[in-house]
Amino acid sequence: MRAGSATLLLMAVLLMAEECQFGLGIEDYIMKEQDIRRQILRNYDRTTLPARRTTVRLRRVTIKHFDIDPASHTLAIDAWLIYEWIDPRLQFAPVDNIQKLSMSPRDIWMPDISLYNEAKMGNVNPFDDTLTLVYPDGRVLHAPPAKLHTSCVADLTYWPHDTHNCSVVLGSWVHHGYTINFRLLEKEPKIDISQRLTADGRNISRGEWDLVSASLIRKENNYECCPEPYVSIWLTLTLQHYAPAFFWTVKLPAVGLTLLTLVLFLLPPAAGEKITLGGFCLVLDLIFIAYTSDTVAHSPSHTPLIVEMVSQQLILVIVCVVTSVLVLRMAHDPHSAGVPSVMRRPLAKLAPLLCLNNYNNLVSGFRRTLPHSLKSEEVELGAGGMGGVNIGGVSVGGSSTALYPHETTIRNEWVFLAAVLDRLCFILFAFICLVNFIRFHAVL
Q: How many CA atoms lie within 13 A of 62 on its CB side?
């Protein structure tokens, strides 16, 4: 009991010492603060300006989080705004430890700072009812968290490497610059975005966007209706899309589809698989366009370049399929006459340049060298296995599929012409693909 009584006595002595140190007891402190509040708020009109011209100083803007929604073309920013002004009516004499007062924004005058480009115009006030701090000299400090939802039209031309310039415009909704003047103490906002790093240093809390640059600018605008200037604060952000996964889901498939089209012309001229592969490429292009259609719908005024590239590729695939059909018909259809004599000499000269000497030798009558000179994908044993060969689906030689020499020559000439057309189309489409890669390199 004696130990407990001694402890209580010691606590009482310490409390009295603390009260003596600060000059006021708890009850006296509360009473004094209430008296000061009643005194400065007596006959106070919160709708009246503190002075003929009030200067609101924006001390700092701290960005905590940001995100762009391309579907609604809006920019969402979570930020802290710290600004202050002088209200002479709120001056008070400090009493002992009462060096500042926390007051509700509903009790004192507040600058009508509004968001001019609010995405939803029904909510132009981005601040909540955070308490303010009032100092003895009448200085009022307000540091509210703000939710800024502004309109920002997304330019998806270079999607998925798109960069957007978005602005947040703040200013007085009613008063012009001669009554409320805004001053900037810093030209750049502070970025304070929390990060979570893994053991190997990767930032797993990183968002989809990178902040390239940010600035604060004070502007004065004059309107035809009024000669007075209206002051506004512009918070401008440059945001760049950061999505490494798009390399595997968008860019690499787009390049692969382009290269796959060229394979059509590397197959033998009379191979029926050309049509199958062409249809497969056509379906893949349509699937890619369907996959990106949701993004295109959010950008009605400008099509993303990578979508435009695949759409052009779709047209090329259609042309390739049509060309392959013509080549197949040329190689397979029966012909009563050979290739016109006017075309034979140019074809013979083009053969070395196009690496088609095998076909040229076939037409020239060097059949004895055919089994050794033709490529394996172009030479197949005849169905009877009697030493005949099959050139692009056309049987030549062999006892079971032998043709008359004249008919064999005619057929071989048309196969040679089909091979030349196939190789010329390959060179043409390879050049087109190269031009497209150079043209759309910004998104690849």
A: 12
Residues 70 and 150 in one domain: yes
For range 90-110, the mean pLDDT: 88
pLDDT tier for residue 25 given thresholds of 50, 70 and 90: low
Residues 261 and 169 in one domain: no
Spatial contact of 265 and 429, defined as CB atoms under 8 Å apart: yes
Q: How many CB atoms lie under 10 A from the CB of residue 246?
A: 16
Instruction: For residues 153 and 75, state if they share a domain.
Output: yes
Structure confidence at residue 79 (pLDDT) = 92
C-alpha–C-alpha distance, residues 69 and 73, integer Å:
6
Q: Give the helix/strand (H/E) hosting 344.
A: helix 341-353
d(CA 360, CA 370): 11
| CATH code for position 76 | 2.70.170.10
Does residue 79 sit within a domain? yes
| Angle between the N-to-C axes of helices 252-262 and 405-439, in degrees from 0 to 180, rounded to the nearest 10 | 160
Q: Token digits for 132?
A: 């303010």
Question: Which two structure tokens, joined as six digits, stand for 216?
Answer: 């604060």
Q: Per-residue confidence at 391, pLDDT binned at 50, 70, 90?
A: very low
Rounded Cα distance, 75 and 169, in Å? 12
Q: Name the least confident of 131-140, 231-240, 310-319.
A: 310-319
- Strand pairing report for 394-396 and 389-391: antiparallel
* pLDDT range class, residue 120, cuts 50, 70, 90: confident
Encoding tokens for residue 156?
């998806």
- Asked whether the predicted pLDDT for residue 404 surpasses 60, the reply is no
Q: Is residue 141 scored above 80 in pLDDT?
A: yes
Q: Are residues 220 and 364 in the same domain?
A: no
Structural domain span for residue 273: 245-444
Residue 403 shares a structural domain with residue 285: yes
132 contacts 108 by C-beta, under 8 angstroms: yes
Kind and range of the H or E run holding 231: strand 226-241
pLDDT at residue 14 is higher than 60: no
- Hunting for tokens 């001056």 — which residue is that? 91
421-434 tens-digit pLDDT: 888 888 888 898 88
Rounded Cα distance, 287 and 285, in Å: 5
Helix H or strand E encompassing 413: helix 405-439
How many domains, the chain?
A: 2
User: Residue 35 is inside which H or E element, if any?
Assistant: helix 26-41
Sheet holding 379-381, edge to edge: 379-381, 389-391, 394-396
Backbone region of residue 232 per phi and psi (left: phi > 0; alpha: psi in -120 to 50; beta: other values): beta
Pull the structure tokens for residue 338.
């050979």
